[in-house]
């Protein structure tokens, strides 16, 4: 039953985010920093979900669910790499909206192409550094049994339970690394949107509506992503029953919801997708 439910969800994640990347790449009307960042966010969403979900789905059909220690460490590395890269990209997208709404006359100067590329590269680099710290902590731990991880994928807190030594220090490092990154990024995002909302008072009704529509999509994605991350990583290393349900939500469900949220609330994206689909249908008929 779970296989039948989660396989279509994963396929929808890949197809939905893939359509966003394709539409932004082809449509000339979407060649702006906002959609540039959105295409990279969609790429990270596909990669982030693919780190966990394919193995999870195949395990649903297996009686004995196994993974090697090397495979487990690789899953942890890429899971945190793409997860923190997404956090930084969401922060960059909030900065982009701040400049567009609060400093519209300087927008094209501040958010030029080299700056956009540097911001994306910085997000990937930040994710890499964060993940390297996590994995260097983990590979030094001795594992001598039991070898059953109480989770549906490899993550730090469940894996620490299998170590044959006290992992209090490692748990504190993870809390400081993952938890504080999530909290500080979330606070930056909230602060930026408070400033944006204050500045929207000077806009016309139509301009305010358009800006709020764009920001609402971003805020929704931020809440869906940061809520579970803060719940799981801003506390000591322990395993709660709710952890697995929360993890399923932000690894399987949230990546699928993001393209729906961005397309349903964005008239420019919907229009570009309709034009792209219309061109493909016409080409097929010819």
From TrEMBL:
GO cellular component: plasma membrane
Membrane topology: Multi-pass membrane protein
Localization (cell): Cell membrane
SUPFAM superfamilies cross-referenced by the UniProt entry: Family A G protein-coupled receptor-like
Signal peptide residues on this chain, from the entry's feature table: none
Family stated for the protein in its record: Belongs to the G-protein coupled receptor 1 family.
Domain named G-protein coupled receptors family 1 profile: residues: 16-262
Keywords, alphabetical: Cell membrane, G-protein coupled receptor, Membrane, Olfaction, Receptor, Sensory transduction, Transducer, Transmembrane, Transmembrane helix
Tree of life domain: Eukaryota
Main location: membrane
Transmembrane segments: 6-27, 73-95, 115-137, 180-200, 212-233, 245-264
Name of the featured protein: Olfactory receptor
Species classification: Eukaryota, Metazoa, Chordata, Craniata, Vertebrata
GO MF term list: G protein-coupled receptor activity; olfactory receptor activity
């Amino acid at each position: 039953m779970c296989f039948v439910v989660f396989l279509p969800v994963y396929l929808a994640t890949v197809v939905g985010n893939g359509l966003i990347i394709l539409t932004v790449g082809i449509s000339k009307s979407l060649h702006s920093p906002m959609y540039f960042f959105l295409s990279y966010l969609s790429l990270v969403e596909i990669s982030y979900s693919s780190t966990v979900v394919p193995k999870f789905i195949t395990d649903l059909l297996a009686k004995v669910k196994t993974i090697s220690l090397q495979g487990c460490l690789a899953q942890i590395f890429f899971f945190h790499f793409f997860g923190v890269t997404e956090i930084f990209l969401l922060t960059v997208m909030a900065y982009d909206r701040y400049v567009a709404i609060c400093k519209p006359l300087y927008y094209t100067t501040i958010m030029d192409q080299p700056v956009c590329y540097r911001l994306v590269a910085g997000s990937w680099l930040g994710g890499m550094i964060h993940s390297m710290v996590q994995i260097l902590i983990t590979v030094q731990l001795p594992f001598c049994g039991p070898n059953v991880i109480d989770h549906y994928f490899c993550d730090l807190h469940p894996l620490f339970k299998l170590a044959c030594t006290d992992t209090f220090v490692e748990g504190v490092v993870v809390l400081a690394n993952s938890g504080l990154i999530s909290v500080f990024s979330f606070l930056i995002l909230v602060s930026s949107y408070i400033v944006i909302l204050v500045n929207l008072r000077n806009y016309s009704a139509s301009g305010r509506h358009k800006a709020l529509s764009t920001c609402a999509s971003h805020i929704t994605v931020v809440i869906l992503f940061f809520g579970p991350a803060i719940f799981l990583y801003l506390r000591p290393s322990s395993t709660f029953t709710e952890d697995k349900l929360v993890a399923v939500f932000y690894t399987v469900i949230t990546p699928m919801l993001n393209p729906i949220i961005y397309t349903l609330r964005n008239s420019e994206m919907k229009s570009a997708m309709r034009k792209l689909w219309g061109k493909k249908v016409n080409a097929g008929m010819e």
